[in-house]
Write a structure and sequence with these properties.
189 residues, 15% strand, two-stranded parallel sheet, single chain, four-stranded mixed beta sheet, 6 helices, alpha/beta
């Protein structure tokens, strides 16, 4: 549903395709402060509900510009396209962190600063890096609450025993992202 351009506090949103890596449609939302939300599985039946919940939480009007006319989302879309094409190794975007706080935000910031493209870290190791040794389960909860997956790359967090672990976008999505970054072999099919 297209709406007129908002006049007060707002967020801009759109749905984009993930390119050839096959992880489906992504909902992107940004405020004037920066990218605020990325959601997986943003098919037409879910995108409006996702935005409704986000509007309620942020207390802002939503504006969905026509494709190609995005203002706040133009650079995030460009960088995501480059990431999916394998040419971008680090996102350089302003981020609006209002959807994350406390320990969860602390862990996500440590993840973003210390786990580069093509690397992985165990939940326990990330807990230690965040100053909370023994808080691996809390790190798992922080990953599950990540409002900015892909950009703040929670798919790079794996089980300490080498297992792939869970992922809000689904384990197959996590496998595809790790394959894109060269951590896992490309799927055979």
């Amino acid at each position: 549903m297209d709406t007129p351009e908002p006049r007060g506090p707002y967020l801009e949103w759109t749905v984009v395709d993930s390119g050839g890596i096959g992880i489906g449609a992504l909902l992107l939302a940004a405020t004037p402060e920066g990218l605020v939300k990325i959601e997986f599985h943003a098919g037409p039946d879910r995108a409006e509900k996702m935005i409704g919940a986000l509007i309620s939480r942020l207390g802002a009007d939503a504006w969905r510009p026509p494709p190609g006319v995005e203002v706040l989302l133009a650079e995030p879309i460009r960088q995501l396209d480059a990431y999916f094409a394998g040419t971008l190794r680090r996102f350089e975007l302003p981020l609006d962190w209002r959807l994350s706080s406390g320990f969860n935000r602390q862990v996500l910031l440590v993840l973003d600063r210390t786990v580069p493209y093509g690397a992985v870290v165990g939940y326990g190791e990330l807990a230690a890096r965040a100053g909370a040794p023994g808080a691996a389960q809390a790190v798992g909860n922080a990953m599950g609450s990540n409002p900015l997956p892909l950009v703040v790359a929670c798919h790079r967090v794996v089980e300490n025993d080498g297992g792939i672990g869970g992922f809000g976008g689904g384990v197959e999505t996590k496998r595809r992202l790790l394959a894109l970054e060269g951590v896992l072999p490309q799927p055979l099919f």
